[in-house]
Amino acid sequence: MFYNFIYKFYGSDFSFCHIFKYITFRSICAFFTSFIALLLFGHKIIHILKKNQMDGQPIREDGPKSHLESKKGIPTMGGTMILASILLGTLLWGDLESAKVWLCLGVLIGFGAIGAIDDTCKLRTKDYHGISGKKKLFLQSVVALVCWYFAVQISNYEGATSVFFPIFKHCSIELGSLFILWAMFVTIGSSNAVNLTDGLDGLAMGPTIMSSICLAVISYLGGNVPFADYLYITYVPGLAEVCVFLSALVGASLGFMWFNAPPAKIFMGDTGSISIGAALGFVAVLSKHEMIYAIVGGIFVLETISVILQVGFYKMTQRRIFLMAPIHHHFEKKGWSESMVVFRFWIISIVLGILALGTLKIR
């Protein structure tokens, strides 16, 4: 909003207004806006949610026994705090004429609404299952289809419907009309992967922040012709503006961690995890770096694969590979403390993020 109002209307009259044209400056401002807003209003929102959720989020009965006591009565739907902060930071500092920014916000809000429905169902029934998996998948598919339909319509650059592979300079697969299905798969898959990871206080936030930072760097580079040409990555017109959205996401995530750090005062619930995961997956495909996202978001991938293997192996043999899935519960069962699991997974995420960015230069 400041960019559209101050720079475009007064940029020619006042030289100091030119600073608003720089995406790096506006991204930093979006980060601090989201971060500070969440810190300022977080306590109030938690108080309201706790007042309306007497019993808090339903706890998984077959989970670690320690969770039945330590996490009892903690309110959920803290994702509303995250979404509101991201919206504030993005709308204030983003270019509101950018279709890509509006699409990112559309994915965030659309999937956030699905998560809110799921969280509300859990609270009403006092059951951690929420809405059925089929209903959730159907709603996610509808939102993803609509957003990607419009995304493809505005994508008129070379390679818009191709999948590119890291390390290699010109290695890609043209999907054509099948691209939307691929994009939907990554978006929905990422959404559910982050949701599975969100099982311990602060666990999902570490990989989320690292993924957001890496995707922000990639978006900035891929949205500038000189950098894109130098690194042999696909130039995507208008992509750099997505940095403002991702910076707001980082700021909101750090602000939320202030309240979600062990012992958590609030859970973000599906309202937050489903929407954040979808937004990251959407940006990954939009930037043509979904393969890189699979590396930096390796924790999300690991959590998802552990569930798939556990369920599949049990159906075939009636035996379990892990003591409990997702895999973070497996390590809890082996005696790791919750904070140990969280911090070690964060360390892995940081290493994967550095590795992912390193692949850009290898080309």
Distance between the termini: 37 Å
- Integer tally of domains: 1
Order of helices and strands: HHHHHHEEHHHHHHHHH
Q: Largest beta sheet, briefly? A: 2 strands, antiparallel
Q: What fraction strand?
A: under 5%
Q: Enumerate the spans where pLDDT stays under 50 for 5 or more consecutive residues.
A: none
- Total of helices: 15
The Cα radius of gyration reads 20 Å
Secondary-structure-based class equals mainly alpha
Shape, please? globular
What can you see in these coordinates?
The chain has helices at residues 2-10, 23-52, 65-70, 79-93, 99-125, 133-153, 179-197, 205-222, 225-231, 242-260, 269-286, 290-296, 298-317, 327-333, 338-362, and strands at 162-164, 172-174. With 363 residues, it is mainly α. The chain has one domain.
Indicate the topology:
Blueprint: H1 2-10, H2 23-52, H3 65-70, H4 79-93, H5 99-125, H6 133-153, E1 162-164, E2 172-174, H7 179-197, H8 205-222, H9 225-231, H10 242-260, H11 269-286, H12 290-296, H13 298-317, H14 327-333, H15 338-362
Helix pairs in contact: 2-4, 2-10, 4-5, 4-10, 4-11, 5-6, 5-11, 6-7, 7-11, 7-13, 8-10, 8-11, 8-15, 11-12, 12-13, 12-15
Features:
2 strands, mainly alpha
Short description:
This protein is mainly α and 363 residues long.
